[in-house]
Design brief:
single chain; mainly beta; globular
C-alpha cells in the first residue's frame, strides 16, 4: 500500500514520527516554530515540515487531530519558498482555546487567528495556489469548507514546497495525527 507521505522529505525532522495504519503520528521537539521578526522580534525556522515540491497552481489538503495543551501548540499545512517566504495555516492554541491560524511571511510574518468555539473531531485544511494568491479554507468534521483567508503569495519561483507542518514554541512533546495529505490541480477558483 502506498502511504500518503511517500516521496515527502523532512525539514527539521521531529524526534518521533511513525506511519501506522495509514496515519502519520508525530511528536514535536523542544521549542520549535516558524516566525520572522514582526512584533516578537525573533526569527525562528526550526518547526517541523514534511513536504514535496510542486510547481504552478494546485490544491493541497489534509485532515488531522492534535493534543493542544500549551500556548502556541500548532498543526496544519505550509507552503514554502525559503526561510523568508512561506505560509503556514492550521489550528493553534492561544488564549486558552483552539484558533484557526494563518501566518503569511514575506520577510516579516503577519498573523491572523479566529477562535473556534467547537472543534471536535478531525480538522480539514485546504490551500489552493492560484496565480499570485493562496486561497486558504478549513472545515471541522464533515462540515462544508469555509474561507479562512485570501493572501498574496509571490508567483515566483514556480516551484514551492508543500506539506504538513507542526510546532510547539513553548515546549517539547506536542502530539498530532495527520490522517491524509493530497495535492493536485486546483479544485476551484470560486471564493464564494
Amino acid at each position: 500500500m502506498t502511504e500518503f507521505i511517500d516521496g515527502m522529505v523532512w525539514r527539521n525532522e521531529p524526534p518521533f514520527w511513525e506511519m501506522r495504519n495509514g496515519v502519520l503520528r508525530v511528536r514535536s521537539g523542544e521549542k520549535t516554530d516558524f516566525w520572522q521578526t514582526t512584533y516578537y522580534g525573533f526569527e525562528r525556522d526550526d518547526g517541523h515540515f514534511l513536504s514535496r515540491p510542486r510547481q504552478g497552481e494546485f490544491t493541497a489538503s489534509t485532515s488531522f487531530t492534535a493534543s493542544y495543551d500549551e500556548l502556541y501548540d500548532q498543526a496544519g499545512m505550509m507552503v514554502r519558498v525559503d526561510a523568508e517566504r512561506w505560509m503556514k495555516c492550521g489550528i493553534e492554541f492561544t488564549d486558552g482555546a483552539m484558533h484557526l491560524s494563518v501566518v503569511v511571511t514575506d520577510g516579516h510574518s503577519d498573523w491572523s487567528a479566529q477562535r473556534l468555539e467547537t472543534a471536535q473531531g478531525d480538522v480539514g485544511i485546504r490551500v489552493s495556489r492560484l496565480n499570485d494568491a493562496l486561497f486558504i479554507q478549513y472545515r471541522l468534521g464533515d462540515a462544508d469548507w469555509r474561507m479562512a483567508r485570501l493572501a498574496y503569495f509571490a508567483p515566483e519561483p514556480a516551484e514551492v514546497q508543500v506539506g504538513l507542518a507542526f510546532c510547539s514554541p513553548q515546549r517539547a512533546g506536542f502530539e498530532a495525527e495527520f490522517k491524509s495529505f493530497e495535492i493536485g490541480p486546483p479544485t476551484t477558483r470560486e471564493i464564494h
